[in-house]
Structure to design on (517 residues):
């Protein structure tokens, strides 16, 4: 382990020789000063990894010295040491962005711990995280073979995302490759699970089917709205790992009441999943009962223009008479308009906000070279997501909702997955264009490479004609026509897509937040 060069500044430095010897025996290089003036000269002349600074010194005090250190070496970590336990001194020190705060009498192990925390933090986290994951790798692998229910897969997905986020900043590429391999293996097994169980979930006697898109509002949202003034925030394309990143920015304003999941229907595409959520119906039923609210894939027009009407129809059928607002935010001016009229949301029993930015970001990454470069891999894409959210109108809206005391539900209609393996499909001009699913009457494909549904009525999907078939891409596959095959493979490889079968697309986070009081 890399040690460090440390400057210890204290007007009673001679009394600290035992502590200095202790650190030197641990391999640290220690220089000393007994006043702030000499410390500043040493810092200007040399390079140090950390400063240990006494607060109460004659002449220039520790806080005065700290102020100058911050000006000339703003990234240099400083541990403040003081005899005083006065709160105002602590506040001033913490406000000056010190790395740590130690109260005399100083314990050698306390100093050592602070040094490790501030100098070796990343290295220690890397070593311990790597060791912990390697130990858990076997447990996760064993659980893949024993997963029998959707809840089992939720638990597996939680663990994989936890390690994905924990290992994201590590320099050890080998352990990241192991995790990537395990994630692919998990998705392969999840695809088998969906193949074996998805059709049976539409059997009324199946008691193991999860909450799905069509019964999300009835079973999970309306029971909350019955008791609380609630905002339902649906962020298109929001995955669980993205939620975990965004949640860190919300802890100042909200407590997490619950972090649950539901299962998106197939296709995991906005037209199908979101319409199903707001209507409380499967797509085939929407097409039959409210035909003007449904357009098949091969029909021209906007596929999600009746969401508010579908919501009100579902509420009426369930006898819900909430005072409702419905806002769909696609462009920044929509967000500004909502903020200007936020009182309407405050006055509603049930306020619905559909936010499309993550979907736009995913498509921008496909279409714009600069976004591809900024979001080169999963970790970079998560970082870009956090950066957007941190400076977004959506965060401002959530702050305002917290101040008003609204309970907030955050979820999505489906997730998205980074695709890398092209699968050849042949279809006619009426075939749908989505890269993760296709529907049409003249599809040619290898049935072993996709999940095929030759009778769409078995999973309550509409048919554009009598011989319509649906096929779904699995894991990280994407569906490509033979025409201009190499061009489209290069163009879409490593982009984020949705519509098919993967944990990322189908296991959708459902978060309930309570505003902090």
């Amino acid at each position: 382990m890399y040690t460090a060069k440390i400057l210890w500044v204290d007007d009673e430095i001679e009394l600290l020789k035992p502590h200095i010897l202790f650190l030197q025996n641990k391999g640290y290089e220690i220089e000393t000063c007994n006043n702030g003036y000499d410390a500043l000269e040493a810092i200007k002349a040399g390079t140090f990894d950390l400063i240990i600074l006494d607060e109460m010194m004659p002449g220039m005090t520790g806080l005065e010295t700290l102020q100058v250190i911050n000006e000339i070496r703003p990234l240099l970590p400083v541990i403040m040491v003081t005899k005083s336990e006065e709160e105002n001194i602590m506040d001033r020190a913490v406000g000056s962005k010190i790395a740590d705060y130690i109260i005399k009498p100083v314990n050698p192990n306390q100093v050592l711990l602070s040094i490790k925390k501030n100098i070796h933090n990343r290295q220690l986290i890397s070593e311990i995280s790597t060791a912990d994951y390697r130990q858990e790798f076997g447990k996760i692998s064993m659980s893949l073979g024993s997963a029998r229910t959707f809840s089992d897969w939720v638990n597996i997905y939680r663990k994989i995302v936890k390690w994905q986020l924990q290992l994201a900043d590590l320099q050890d590429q080998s352990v990241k490759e192991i995790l990537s391999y395990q994630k692919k293996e998990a998705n392969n097994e999840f695809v088998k699970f969906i193949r074996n169980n998805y059709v049976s979930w539409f059997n009324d006697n199946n008691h193991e089917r999860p909450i799905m898109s069509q019964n999300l509002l009835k079973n999970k949202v309306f029971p909350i709205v019955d008791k609380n003034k609630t905002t339902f925030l649906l962020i298109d394309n929001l995955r669980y790992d993205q939620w975990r990143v965004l949640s860190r920015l919300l802890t100042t304003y909200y407590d997490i009441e619950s972090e649950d999941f539901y299962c998106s229907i197939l296709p995991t595409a906005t037209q199908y999943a979101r319409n199903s959520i707001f209507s409380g119906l499967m797509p085939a039923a929407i097409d039959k009962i409210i035909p003007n609210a449904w357009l098949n894939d091969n029909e021209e027009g906007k596929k999600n223009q009746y969401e508010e009407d579908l919501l009100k129809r579902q509420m009426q059928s369930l006898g819900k008479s909430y005072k409702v607002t419905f806002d769909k935010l696609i462009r920044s001016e929509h967000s500004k308009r909502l903020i200007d009229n936020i009182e309407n949301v405050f006055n509603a029993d049930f306020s619905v906000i559909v936010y499309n930015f993550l979907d736009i970001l995913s498509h921008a990454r496909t279409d714009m070279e600069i976004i591809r470069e900024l979001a080169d891999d999963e970790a970079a894409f998560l970082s870009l997501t956090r950066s957007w959210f941190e400076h977004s109108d959506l965060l401002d809206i959530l702050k305002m909702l917290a101040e008003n005391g609204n309970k907030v539900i955050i979820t999505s209609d489906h997730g998205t997955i980074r695709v890398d393996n092209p699968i050849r499909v042949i279809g006619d001009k009426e075939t749908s264009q989505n890269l993760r699913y296709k529907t049409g009457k003249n599809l040619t494909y290898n049935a072993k490479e996709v999940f095929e549904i030759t009778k769409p009525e078995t999973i309550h999907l509409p048919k554009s004609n009598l011989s319509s078939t649906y096929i779904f891409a699995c894991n990280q596959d994407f569906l490509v026509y033979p025409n201009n095959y190499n061009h489209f493979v290069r163009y879409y490889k490593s982009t984020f897509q949705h519509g098919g079968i993967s944990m990322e697309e189908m296991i959708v986070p459902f978060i309930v937040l309570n505003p902090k009081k």
Remarks:
- The CA atoms of residues 149 and 208 lie 7 Å apart.
- The first strand starts at residue 5 and ends at 9.
